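Notes from hallway chat w/ T.B., transcribed later so I don't forget. T.B. wanted the structure written out for a chain they're using in a teaching module, and asked if we could keep both sequence and structure tokens in one place. Agreed to drop them here.
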Amino acid sequence: MKVLVTGSSGFLGSSVVPGLVAGGHEVVGADVRDPARPTPGAVHVRMDVRERHTVQEVLAGHRPEVVVHLASVVTPGKDSDRARERAVDVDGTRHVLDACREHGVRRIVVSSSGAAYGYHADNPVPLTEDDPLRGNPEFAYADHKRQVEEMLAVERARTPTLEQVVLRIGTILGERVDNQITRLWSGRFILRLAGAESPFVLVWDEDVVRVVVAAVTSPTTGVFNVAGEGTVTVPEIARALGRRTLTVPEPALRTVLAVGRRLGLTAYGPEQTVFLAHRPVLDASRLHELGVEVAPTREVLRRYAALRRR
């Protein structure tokens, strides 16, 4: 099939494109920047999802049968702001959906996140795909993923001929992963909130690629949590990585973060304690409908720890 991948030069896209090419697909990688390593056999084009006319031109010119929409701001840079992130995450998805409808795309595969459920003390454990999406207004990524999924639900009713596969992905680990979570684990100590379990569900990056490739070709549609079975706690993560934990009371950390942000010492504010304390735990048992199995969470941590030791 002819598949167009948005965000093709990003962390996930740069693995999904070669995975699709290896599967025999005709692939168009579309991103606002050129790929660091162009994939042989794929066509790479410049496309900024914030620009409606550009998205329309690219889809009209290439006429893909399937669009894999990965473009989003996961880890904002120093010069980023909430308006820019929303323009990419929410407005960009609107532009892609409109272009899919207008140019006869048969299926769209969207990378969402477990963050769409939100970081809440009263989240069910585990969360299934039928649980409500609440996001968190204070976290741009979680809030935007919730808005995107609401948009997708409206589009399903409006355009039933456009098949949808929505992937709510847990915490990704792998050899090239560098994000907010892995940075928390990179120092001598790993922060732990007193009294909080902070369970993590993990998924290996190569497994995520296999899930995306399967979502392109499977006859199945719908929403799927993507995570390894089981959870690991902060002390377990620390032991695996050869680190020690630093246990801090939540009020004390809120105060430190509030002062640090006010002085410009950190980009994270006191709301970050919610992010640390109430991790969404995903039930990914529905993944078997796509014909894919992923490594359990503990195995993902073992692989990651082995890489870090090397």
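Follow-up for T.B.: The mean pLDDT is 94. Might be a good example for the class.
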